[in-house]
Amino acid sequence: MVAVELEFYLIDRQRDAEGYLQPPCAPGTDDRNTQSQVYSVDNLNHFADVLTDIDDLARLQLIPADGAVAEASPGQFEINLHHTDNVLDACDDALALKRLVRTVAEKHKMHATFMAKPYEEHAGSGMHIHISVLNNKGENVLADADGEDSALLKRALAGMIHLMPSSMALLAPNVNSWRRFQPGMYVPTQASWGHNNRTVALRIPCGDRDNHRVEYRVAGADANPYLVMATILAGILHGLDNDLPLQEEVEGNGLEQEGLPFPIRQSDALWEFTQNDHLRDLLGERFSHVFHACKHDELVQFERLITETEIEWMLKNA
């Protein structure tokens, strides 16, 4: 069973006085919220017309949107998709939801973006995947008879963690994706796991035996959901097929503890991707080669750009 959560920003069509992106005014008002208010009911009320149109259109298109919340930053929201046992349907619905949200935003004379980090000073947007595994009797095999972590869950966690550094090129596929991984920005920065801990990469939420699951919290909202799902399933399969050690559970703030680090640049991530035979075998050699070639070419093109910041810093100082 899988369920997708997508974070996104509503953005004003007009830039601010300095040319930067800014949150939109609440429809019908001049009220522009610039403060972070996670789970704010007021923010939901201010943009109720937009969110209602998203919900209505999702129903018409049979997209199983299952609720929206205001997220950590101004103009940022999260929409959850209902869980399903069909992984491809979950990915189809995620892509359809992104198109739908952008369409509704344009109708309300604003933009919607699933860019991983549109603002320097605010949190990025993620794609969180909840996953559980049922046997042919419909029983959740990630929990034992007492509702605790099963041996199978621990093997799956070990596999996902082991492949995670090499998977980052898939989970953070664009140059902007890497700006999201900063301390204090509600995103994990290393391969880790823990119970009901939002500072780790793999979170096991509270719940009864039937709802025992893993929340994979690494991917950005800009990632391809099919590739994110393939990465997760590859990690689980890798753990089930191999007797891998599972690192200690993180308790407390995982951002302040040592663990298995991620690559910190896209170039490093692409190199790590090429070094892991297990991941390439599971994803397929042909796909792995084409993906790496495309992303390497994109990075080379980006690095050729001369930015305004470079000119400002270096024009008269070099």
UniProtKB/TrEMBL annotation:
GO terms for biological process: glutamine biosynthetic process; polyamine catabolic process. One of its GO terms (molecular function) is glutamine synthetase activity. Signal peptide: none annotated. Residues 1-318 form the GS catalytic domain. Its EC number is 6.3.1.11. It comes from the Bacteria. InterPro entries: Gln_synth/guanido_kin_cat_dom, Gln_synth_cat_dom, Gln_synth_gly_rich_site. Keywords: Ligase, Magnesium. Belongs to the glutamine synthetase family. This is Gamma-glutamylputrescine synthetase PuuA. The gene is puuA_2.
